């Protein structure tokens, strides 16, 4: 029965092995016979398939053009959201619809077009080749010849319309994403140096605008907060931009469980802390607060900040703590800001160090 000690298939007896003598009894059947496609034997079918691919590439081009028309041609004038129902306006809905439709058509057309081209027009013969290292000049020349053959068999030379529409679709398809990436953040970093927070500005709830008293913030609670003077701005005055920079999270912790540096001892009120809601990684809004661990989590890339240690980064790609907003109490018992943030809010870029030094120079 063999040696069972190591339990391997060769010795366990559970698998019947062969000494190789019977290998020649089962010759390699080889590849199955090639079955030509309709487009291989019918020129009309091949021409029809070519027109289909060209049409798909044209759809991709038109989708990319539609994106640019919606992105640059439709201007959302006035408020972007209905104040009463907090719903997008008709202009914003139309722009979003056309932007999404343009991207979908742009990527769908070029993707399906390439697949249809490969399925119906490119050679589909199955080949078996031994893998080898390309070292000698002869082998390099052979490899070059193979690539040239592939280029010729793809039909690009023989089908200029198909080639040109593919080039047009391939050039235009990535451009919508360039526009979207440009909108991820400001190109001028100076706009992140300051927000509309200033000394005496009340902290109010978002979106109701209700001022917050110390007694409203219980242990373990969290509030989404904006400055009271934000309501004085109209949409043409940069309301959304200022709100995106100034929004903060307000939480109350047991003061005995919080480590506070000497220069920040008067930045909180009886364990009530205010920190920027904008993640220092790429600027996603932080909205997840774990009460038991006192951690703030960014839902985009899982950056985690420790509230008990001045929101230092304990996990994730963020490279610096969340900026803290110094707060105090006014004569009526409402929470107010002592000043603006002492450092830029938002993502940390390579130029951010220069902005911090500039701010420190202005403060001195």
UniProtKB/TrEMBL annotation:
Residues 1-43 are annotated as: Disordered. It holds the Pfam family QcrA_N. It is found in: Cell membrane. It comes from Kocuria gwangalliensis. Iron-sulfur subunit of the cytochrome bc1 complex, an essential component of the respiratory electron transport chain required for ATP synthesis. The bc1 complex catalyzes the oxidation of menaquinol and the reduction of cytochrome c in the respiratory chain. The bc1 complex operates through a Q-cycle mechanism that couples electron transfer to generation of the proton gradient that drives ATP synthesis. The keyword Metal-binding applies. Belongs to the Rieske iron-sulfur protein family. The chain crosses the membrane at residues 53-74, 94-115. Keywords: 2Fe-2S, Cell membrane, Disulfide bond, Electron transport, Iron, Iron-sulfur, Membrane, Metal-binding, Oxidoreductase, Respiratory chain, Transmembrane, Transmembrane helix, Transport. Residues 245-336 form the Rieske domain. This is Cytochrome bc1 complex Rieske iron-sulfur subunit. It is a multi-pass membrane protein. It comes from the Bacteria.
